[in-house]
Amino acid sequence: MFFNSNVMNTKSLSDAQLVCNYISGDENALSILINRHQSRLYGFIFSKIQDRDAADDVFQDTFIKVIRTLKRGNYNEQGKFLPWVMRISHNLIIDYFRKNSRMPKFKSKNEFDIFSIISDDSLNIENKMVDAQIENHIRILLDELPDEQRAVIKMRIYQDMSFKEISESTGVSINTALGRMRYGLINLRKMIDKHKINLIN
Amino acid sequence: MAELYSKNTSNSEQLKPSKKTIRFLIDYSKSLKIIKIRKTNYETFLN
């Protein structure tokens, strides 16, 4: 069943009708759904993450999942489109915090930075040399990777780019960028195991 | 006293994702095609 959004006032179309239209091939229906719910969903994400760029990423990843599920025909319409989308974003927020708790970041906000006057004396000369050696080993290993995997890892780790930015920069989909990162890391681990390299200082 | 309280909420800034993100999602959706062969779904991206 297809609800002709060109004839009917789009504002009067329910989420269920728009989802049905979208699954039937009406791409405009997705634009209406996003426009209708973007503030509420983004506000929800931002209230948890408190970072605009990260919230943008989670919002994007949420709708990528929505789009893929709808296009695959795996969505069961029960008149609860928004709660479904919110649940997806909620799970992605949890994933975000899990990932960031493992890799803490410090962002300077251009205000007074205490770290500018406190030096870290814990890294003595020997540790610095070992650190430099590890860094060198990692770079050598990275050079052994296929070009696409190396590029994604460098952009993600050394340039701190989001997967959205990597996707745009390399001209591939986010899924492809994610896949390259994943296989790049798998290949790095294989090389580390194969050569019995110790990367711990 | 009533003048102190504004009922007009249209001036308040609503949090929204960037236009770039929205544009990306719309383009992503347009380019994504699902091909079902037997019982397996294959995702392809049209340029």
Contiguous helical run count of chain B: 1
Radius of gyration of chain A: 22 Å
Named at the architecture level, the CATH assignment of the largest domain in chain A is Orthogonal Bundle
Per DSSP E runs of 2 or more residues, the count of β-strands of chain A stands at 0
What is the number of independent domains of chain A?
2
- N-to-C SSE series of chain A? HHHHHHHH
CATH homologous superfamily (4th level) name of the largest domain in chain A: RNA polymerase sigma factor, region 2, helix turn helix motif
Please report the distance between the alpha carbons of the first and last residues of chain B. Answer: 60 Å
On the 0-100 scale, what is the average pLDDT of chain B? 76
How far the N terminus sits from the C terminus of chain A, by CA atoms, comes to 63 Å
Question: What is the typical, i.e. mean, pLDDT of chain A?
Answer: 81
What is the oligomeric state here? heterodimer
Which segments of chain B are poorly predicted (pLDDT under 50) over 5 or more consecutive residues?
Answer: 1-12
- Work out the helicity level of chain B: 25-40%
Helix content of chain A: 55-70%
Shape of chain A: elongated
What are the low-pLDDT stretches of chain A, counting only 5+ consecutive residues below 50? Answer: none
- How many H/I helical runs of chain A? 8
What's the helix and strand layout?
The complex is a heterodimer of chains A (201) and B (47).
Chain A: H1 15-23, H2 27-49, H3 52-72, H4 81-102, H5 125-144, H6 147-158, H7 163-170, H8 174-195
Chain B: H1 19-31, E1 32-37, E2 40-45
Task: Write a structural description.
The complex is a heterodimer of chains A (201) and B (47). Chain A has 201 residues and is mostly helical. Chain A folds into 2 domains: 10-102, Orthogonal Bundle (Rna Polymerase Sigma Factor, Chain: A), CATH 1.10.1740; 124-195, Arc Repressor Mutant, subunit A. Chain A is 68% helix and 0% strand. Chain A is built from 8 helices and no strands. Chain A is elongated and about 70 Å long. Chain A starts with 14 loop residues before the first helix and ends in a 6-residue tail after the last helix. With 47 residues, chain B is α+β, with helices and mostly antiparallel strands. Chain B has a domain at 17-47. Chain B is built from 1 helix and 2 strands. Chain B has one helix at 19-31, and strands at residues 32-37, 40-45. Chain B has a two-stranded antiparallel sheet with strand order 1-2. In chain B, strand 1 (32-37) and strand 2 form a beta hairpin. The interface between A and B is medium-sized, with 26 and 19 residues.
